[in-house]
Design goal:
The chain is 70% helix and 0% strand. It is mostly helical and 345 residues long. The protein is elongated, with a radius of gyration of 30 Å.
């Protein structure tokens, strides 16, 4: 900050821009500095513009000659990156051609995103500046980069807000994976409804979901369940089951549906889906998955007040279970239900 102040007073535009980059590359900077020397991040944008205009005048570059500004920035980047970024900033903010403005934004991002200080500087320049009072004013290519930066910094709520302004995937990206990522960012950023809408729109036109894509989608729906957004999960899980014919996966989906019903305290529905999972595709329910689902069904039936049905299930499980630890757990549940029946009203 002191160097920037001294450089401005002496008219040293290069040192001023370089010093301000150092100030706002720090994680301690949050859009403005405090103390004796006070700056907000717009001081850096102004320093870029001032520096670029000064050099441009010396080189007889005129506003509107977008290609010449971009070519000059490209030539300068390796040896004098601050000067190059000043040219790119001018082109990004004042360029006449939309295509060149996009290229300037992409080159500006590319010059900074490889190192943590540069990523921090990008965050400050675009998210703490009056130049971009609304997120949609930030160039699209910059928004893509900022989402990655915010996720890496564990700022998922900010990433979610920014992702809400980005409807289309970057050029060359896989549309399915992009939408999954977008949905997950929304969910983890406490925008579960937006995430669910993305998944629903993504799944609706798909007639058949591959095993790999089904598994990847389930992982995002588990994020909904972990966020206690079970109503959204219940709307989406059947869509996967309808689009994937694998019996094992459908059996698992029935179980996860039951888990969401249980989380919503809809115990009768939960018990029904646990049992459907246990006996799916003519299974006898004797395998480990079936036994687990039947145990969960018995617990749900008990919570639903259907204690006789719960006792029956626990008794069946006790008859086929040999592992001592599991037998002890089942027996305890059974005894608890039986004692409840004998308690005076």
């Amino acid at each position: 900050s002191v160097v920037a102040e001294a450089a401005q007073r002496s008219g040293d535009r290069a040192s001023s821009a370089h010093a301000l980059e150092q100030v706002f590359s720090s994680e301690r900077a949050a859009g403005k500095t405090t103390g004796l020397m006070q700056y907000d991040v717009d001081a850096l944008w102004n320093a870029y513009i001032d520096y670029a205009l000064f050099i441009g005048n010396q080189s007889q570059l005129l506003i509107g000659q977008d290609k010449k500004w971009l070519d000059a920035a490209t030539t300068l980047m390796e040896k004098t990156p601050v000067k190059a970024r000043a040219f790119l900033a001018l082109l990004m903010l004042r360029g006449q051609d939309a295509g060149y403005r996009r290229l300037a934004a992409q080159n500006f991002v590319d010059s900074l995103k490889s190192q943590p200080p540069g990523r921090q500087l990008l965050r400050q320049l675009f998210l703490s500046s009056h130049q971009f009072s609304r997120l949609v004013q930030i160039p699209l290519t910059v928004r893509y980069a900022l989402v990655d930066i915010l996720i890496a910094q564990s700022d998922l709520e900010s990433a979610s807000r920014l992702m809400a302004t980005v409807a289309m995937p970057p050029e060359g990206s896989d549309n399915f994976m992009w939408n999954l990522r977008r949905a997950r960012i929304f969910i983890l950023g406490k925008k579960a409804a937006e995430g669910a809408i993305v998944l629903q729109k993504m799944l609706t036109p798909i007639k058949k979901l591959s095993d790999g894509d089904a598994d990847k989608t389930l992982q995002v729906i588990f994020d909904l369940q972990n966020a206690d957004e079970n109503a959204h999960a219940l709307a989406l899980l059947p869509m996967i089951s309808e689009r994937n014919t694998d019996a094992k996966r459908r059996r698992e989906i029935d179980y996860w549906v039951a888990e969401s019903y249980k989380a919503q305290e809809e115990y009768s529905q939960a018990a029904r889906m646990y049992l459907q999972s246990a006996y799916y595709d003519k299974s006898d329910g004797l395998d480990i998955w079936g036994q687990t689902a039947r145990y969960q069904a018995a617990e749900a039936l008990a919570k639903a007040g259907l204690k006789l049905d719960a006792q029956k299930l626990f008794s069946q499980l006790l008859a086929i279970t040999t592992e001592p630890g599991r037998r002890a757990v089942i027996l305890k549940q059974l005894q608890s239900l039986q004692q409840g029946e004998n308690d005076p009203e």
